């Protein structure tokens, strides 16, 4: 079972906090990888927060392919962080030759473009790079977005952290928001793209569970948006629906829950907004999820949300102190990084609840 | 001694032979009275008996006239194998036996007239659905649900569903508000009692189905809907609260609509829907026929017609294209109920179904509220045998093709797909419904199985299927008052209700192991098949 987690803090923190959140949660041979998305960065990239940051893992040839493409498309390189891995044969990591995290300036003709147009450009660029690398099997591109960094690798999370020197806090890599997960999709072929969290145009998501409406969701999502691709994991469905409801339909966040776990018809008829909710259930029936699931999502504005499926068959807990709030599948993760918080204030969201944490670390919880 | 005339029809030429045991028969006459086809009659036979009663053989021959039951040896009175004689005989003295050497099909086109009958196709009763298994069982990661304990949303849409971006919604203070009216959509039980008219059915049979429908709704909270069939319904029902359980059908004869239209101002509630019947799976391209023999007084009254053969043309006269039918027929049916009642269309499954469905999906008025596909295994009250056995199209692959075609366009679910024609053919409608739903149907419709629950004994192997004759021995497909009396309405309705309650439990028993609390429409990943050709055609997993 995946354990998932997220940390949101008023102060910049080091990714080792995410590891401390996740490692106590390990059960059996769970920990088969490490993946995190960091948002609102400090350190190496602090000077270019408004400029897109590319996260990729590739071969030397892949790096060249990417460089050529970016140059041909008028992206100008700004800052860069290329971690030099610790070479130790005893480390359990299936490392790629290169990990590149690079800030770019927009092409000149895009500098005055709207945020929306820039967002489309960044997506198209990521999709083009992915296709380029995939075709020649030269690497993986995970995200290309301002102030967002994605790191994913296969192996033991502890060893992966050692490899990337994530245990040593030298101030290079800091963030206020992190979404994290420590398991590769061991049920199928191990594919780097199948590891959560997934990212699309400022939306990050990871999920714990199994979406038994995967086929239904996938068949519908495929025709909704050019960015809804891959489907290496049934949890990508959650991200694409989040993106579709918020970014494409531009509906308020509370309708995300109504789309993925609609209320039963007999409850809809009792609600004052029953007509709207019924219309949503009707028209977005193919995006309903089923099976046991818990979702953690991070929005472009930095807010972090969590909710469960309507039968609540997978656990999640939210807890925090004044400066940091964390979400984890198991409470032992929270105890590791927030031992002095008031546990009585921990939130265990129920099957109809959504929890949102904003930048002021206010924990908002409401019922569907 | 008589000379053999080879052209003479004898009992051995007929599909069923009556086997009568004279030693058990008491000549009570019940079988003769019960046989609606007059296939048997009392007769006197001359018998020659040789007896010897002494210690030594002293044979003497005696001739006597004895009463017996004799089978008529003509085509008009051929035994249909319905077995009413066996059912009524107090002594188990008589029964029909299938005759494998029957020459009936060669002899029955007397007068140059095609063979007519009711029932289902006899040649195409192969079952794709029995080769499909619900094979994706939740184990470990996705625990199965508990069919007894969990709640399940077993409902299907009837009505036109809009694409998400087409919804007239605006955001006010962080809340979505509908700013315009949506096309009407009724969420109903995913099984519709299919269209069998008053006329094709006896009033009692129709009433039993209507009674079961109302009972399921009002006592068991199962929103099952019943389609009227062509020919309308009693005005009393049109003006009652129970109209909300009925789907009004309009077919090419437009029978009964004069009364329906006149009743509209007096309707207390809206009907559940309107179903435009273009074609029927059992006899595609062949119009309906209600023989004059079945046009009884009440049928004349309901349909507003004289006693005559009532022929529904094979197509809707005056409609020459899909676009035209949408513009004229859909719009006028929608307008009749002020756009409050969904209007759907029923077509015989055909090699061309996907193109019709695609066209409807692009309807600019967004008023086509359902696409009903009727397969070759559908039943009918009367048809030419050549249509029943040699025309039509299986419904399973065609439903799947329609669904996948909608998927390709991102339009699945907008015009709900309903499949029928052979659902429940082998007795388990829940399993059939579930599998067709996983392949992309929103729901299914049942007809034949309902009348079987009322007592119909017809089957795909040539038993009875005399729905066209007006002599239905079960009192179901006849208007003869003496025959209709044979049907106990309450018992018939009870059989349907009990079957549906069991079906509901069985649907849960299938939803629970795949871990779904709402209908798995299009969840083809839940199905596997042991037949490679089926796997390939339906795009489901092949297993062995």
UniProtKB/TrEMBL annotation, chain A:
What InterPro entries does its record include? GATase_2_dom, Ntn_hydrolases_N
Q: Which domain of life is it from?
A: Bacteria
Q: Which residue ranges does the record assign to the Glutamine amidotransferase type-2 domain?
A: 2-360
Q: What is this protein called?
A: Glutamine amidotransferase type-2 domain-containing protein
UniProtKB/TrEMBL annotation, chain B:
* Sample GO molecular function, one term: 4 iron, 4 sulfur cluster binding
Q: What is its EC number?
A: 1.4.1.13
Identify which top EC class this enzyme belongs to: oxidoreductase
An example Pfam family from this entry, by short name, is: Fer4_16
Q: Tell whether 4Fe-4S is among the UniProt keywords.
A: yes
Q: What is this protein called?
A: glutamate synthase (NADPH)
Q: Where does [4Fe-4S] cluster 1 bind?
A: 25, 28, 31, 89
Q: Which reaction does it catalyse?
A: 2 L-glutamate + NADP(+) = L-glutamine + 2-oxoglutarate + NADPH + H(+)
Q: Indicate the family of this protein.
A: Belongs to the glutamate synthase family.
InterPro entries in the record: 4Fe4S_Fe-S-bd (IPR017896), 4Fe4S_Fe_S_CS (IPR017900), Aldolase_TIM (IPR013785), GltB (IPR024188), Glu_synthdom (IPR002932)
Ranges for domain 4Fe-4S ferredoxin-type: 16-45, 69-99
Signal peptide from the UniProt entry:
none
Which keywords has UniProt assigned to this entry?
A: 4Fe-4S, Amino-acid biosynthesis, Glutamate biosynthesis, Iron, Iron-sulfur, Metal-binding, Oxidoreductase
Q: So where does [4Fe-4S] cluster 2 get bound? A: 35, 79, 82, 85
Is Metal-binding a UniProt keyword of this protein?
yes
One BP annotation, GO: glutamate biosynthetic process
């Amino acid at each position: 079972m995946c354990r998932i987690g997220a940390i949101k803090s008023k102060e910049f923190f080091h990714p080792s906090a995410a590891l401390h959140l996740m490692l106590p949660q390990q059960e059996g041979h769970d920990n088969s990888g490490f993946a995190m998305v960091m948002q609102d960065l400090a350190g190496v990239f602090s000077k270019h927060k408004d400029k897109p940051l590319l996260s990729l893992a590739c071969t030397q040839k892949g790096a060249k392919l990417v460089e050529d493409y970016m140059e041909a498309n008028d992206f100008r390189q700004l800052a860069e962080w290329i971690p030099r891995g610790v070479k130790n044969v005893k480390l359990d990591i299936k490392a790629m030759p290169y990990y590149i995290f690079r800030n770019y300036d927009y092409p000149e003709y895009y500098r005055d473009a709207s945020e929306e147009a820039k967002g489309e450009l960044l997506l198209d660029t990521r999709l083009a790079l992915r296709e380029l690398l995939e075709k020649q099997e030269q690497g993986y591109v995970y995200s290309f977005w301002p102030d967002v960094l994605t790191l994913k690798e296969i192996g033991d999370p502890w060893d992966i952290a050692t490899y990337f020197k994530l245990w040593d806090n030298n101030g290079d890599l800091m963030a206020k928001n992190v979404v994290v997960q420590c398991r590769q999709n061991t049920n199928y072929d191990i594919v780097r793209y199948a590891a959560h969290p997934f990212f699309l145009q400022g939306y990050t998501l990871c999920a714990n569970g199994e979406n038994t409406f995967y086929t239904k969701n996938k068949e519908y999502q495929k025709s909704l948006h050019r960015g809804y691709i891959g489907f290496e994991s049934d949890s990508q469905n959650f991200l694409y629906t989040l993106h579709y409801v918020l970014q494409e339909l531009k509906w308020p966040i509370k309708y995300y829950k109504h789309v993925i776990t609609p209320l039963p018809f007999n409850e809809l008829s009792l609600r004052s907004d029953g007509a709207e909710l019924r219309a949503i259930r009707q028209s977005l029936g193919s995006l309903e999820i089923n099976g046991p699931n818990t979702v953690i999502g991070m929005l472009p504005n930095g807010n972090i949300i969590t909710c469960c499926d309507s039968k609540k068959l997978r656990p999640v807990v939210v807890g925090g102190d004044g400066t940091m709030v964390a979400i984890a599948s198991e409470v032992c993760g929270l105890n590791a990084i927030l031992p002095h918080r008031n546990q009585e204030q921990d939130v265990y969201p129920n099957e109809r609840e959504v929890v949102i944490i904003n930048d002021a670390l206010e924990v908002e919880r409401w019922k569907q | 001694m008589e000379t053999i005339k080879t052209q003479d029809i004898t009992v051995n030429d007929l599909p069923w032979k009556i086997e009568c045991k004279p030693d058990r028969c008491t000549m009570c006459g019940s079988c003769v009275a019960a046989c609606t086809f007059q296939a048997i009659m009392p007769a006197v036979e001359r018998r020659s008996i040789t007896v010897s009663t002494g210690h030594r053989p002293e044979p003497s021959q005696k001739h006597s006239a004895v009463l017996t039951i004799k089978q008529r040896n003509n085509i008009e009175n051929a035994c249909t194998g319905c077995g009413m004689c066996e059912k009524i005989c107090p002594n188990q003295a008589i029964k029909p036996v299938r005759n494998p050497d029957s020459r009936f099909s060669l002899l029955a086109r007397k007068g140059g007239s095609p063979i007519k009958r009711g029932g289902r196709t006899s040649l195409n009763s192969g079952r794709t659905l029995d080769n499909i298994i619900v094979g994706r069982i939740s184990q470990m990661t996705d625990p199965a649900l508990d069919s007894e304990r969990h709640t399940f949303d077993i409902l299907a849409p009837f009505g036109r569903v809009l694409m998400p971006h087409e919804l007239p919604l605006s955001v006010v203070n962080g809340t979505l508000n509908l700013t315009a009216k949506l096309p009407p959509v009724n969420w109903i039980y995913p099984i519709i009692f299919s269209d069998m008219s008053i006329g094709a059915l006896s009033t009692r049979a129709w009433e039993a189905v209507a009674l079961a429908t109302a009972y399921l709704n009002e006592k068991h909270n199962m929103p099952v809907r019943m389609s009227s069939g062509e020919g309308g319904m009693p005005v009393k029902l049109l003006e009652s609260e129970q109209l909300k359980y009925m789907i009004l059908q309009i077919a090419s004869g437009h029978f009964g609509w004069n009364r329906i239209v006149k009743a509209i101002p007096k309707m207390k509630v809206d009907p559940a829907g309107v179903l435009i019947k273009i074609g029927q799976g059992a006899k595609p391209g062949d119009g309906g026929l209600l023989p004059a023999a079945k046009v009884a007084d009440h049928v004349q009254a309901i349909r507003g017609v004289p006693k005559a053969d009532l022929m529904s043309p094979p197509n809707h006269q005056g409609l020459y294209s899909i676009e035209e039918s949408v513009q004229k027929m859909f719009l006028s049916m929608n307008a009749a109920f002020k756009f409050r009642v969904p209007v759907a269309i029923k077509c015989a499954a055909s090699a061309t179904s996907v193109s019709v469905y695609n066209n409807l999906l692009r309807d600019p008025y967004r008023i086509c509220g359902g696409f009903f596909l009727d397969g070759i295994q559908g039943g009918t009250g009367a048809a030419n045998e050549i249509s029943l056995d040699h025309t039509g199209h299986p419904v399973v692959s065609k439903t799947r093709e329609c669904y996948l075609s909608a998927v390709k366009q991102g339009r699945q679910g907008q015009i709900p797909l309903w499949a029928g024609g052979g659902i429940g053919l082998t007795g388990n409608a829940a399993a059939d419904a579930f599998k067709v739903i996983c392949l992309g149907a929103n729901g299914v419709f049942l007809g034949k199985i309902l009348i079987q629950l009322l007592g119909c004994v017809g089957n795909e192997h040539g038993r009875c299927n005399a729905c066209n004759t007006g002599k239905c021995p079960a009192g179901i497909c006849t208007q003869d008052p003496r025959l209709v009396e044979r049907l106990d309405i309450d018992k018939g309705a009870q059989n349907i209700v009990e079957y549906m309650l069991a079906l509901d439990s069985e649907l849960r028993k299938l939803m629970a192991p795949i871990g779904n609390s709402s209908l798995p429409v299009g969840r083809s990943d839940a199905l596997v098949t042991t037949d490679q050709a089926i796997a390939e055609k339906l795009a489901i997993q092949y297993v062995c």
